[in-house]
Amino acid sequence: MEQRKLSPMSRVKKIDSEKSWKFFNIQARKLGFSVVVHFTTTWCMPSVAMNPVFEELASSHPDTLFLLVDVDELTRVAKEMEVKAMPTFVMMKDGSPLDMLVGANTYQITKRISSFAQPAPAHLSTSIEFV
After folding, report:
1. CB neighbour class for 78 (10 Å; exposed up to 12, middle 13-18, buried from 19)
2. Span of the secretion signal (predicted)?
3. Which residue in 21, 52, 76, 79 has the most C-beta neighbors within 10 A?
């Protein structure tokens, strides 16, 4: 099965190194943004099937940073976040995990992220644009 690539206009940021993991988390913490992370692998079909759902959620919640982490590429990050199965979704605030959902349950992840995602602080833009 062909792996689906993120669109260049995607609001989901693919994390390709520990350095970028730290960068995005530090920036989100400084700016007061919530973070949702999708831990995935290319060989886990339920996880791959959640990518379009995650993209849609990212578009629906512009004040939340959405990150995609391939656990095979960033094993240390996955271990640090206690990821044991895929897909795993972690909701974070101020650099700390607040909630975790394991499994490809579209209804549950939509419900959890919708209740977790919150508007950006009033003094900031209503949309996150990290380079």
Report:
1. buried
2. none
3. 21
At how many degrees (to 10) do helices 106-116 and 51-60 cross?
A: 30
Here the tokens at position 121 are 């602080």
Q: What is the DSSP string of the chain?
A: -PPPPPPTT-SEEEE-SHHHHHHHHHHHHHHT-EEEEEEE-TT-HHHHHTHHHHHHHHHH-TTEEEEEEETTT-HHHHHHTT--SSSEEEEEETTEEEEEEES--HHHHHHHHHHH--PPPTTS-SS----
Full-model pTM: 0.84
The three-state secondary structure class of 28 is helix
Asked whether 12 and 6 are in contact (CB, 8 A), the reply is yes
pLDDT for residue 9: 61
Which tokens belong to 55?
């993209």
Look at 26 and 117; give whichever has higher pLDDT.
26
- Asked whether the predicted pLDDT for residue 96 surpasses 50, the reply is yes
For residues 97 and 91, give the distance between their C-alpha atoms in angstroms, rounded to a whole number: 6
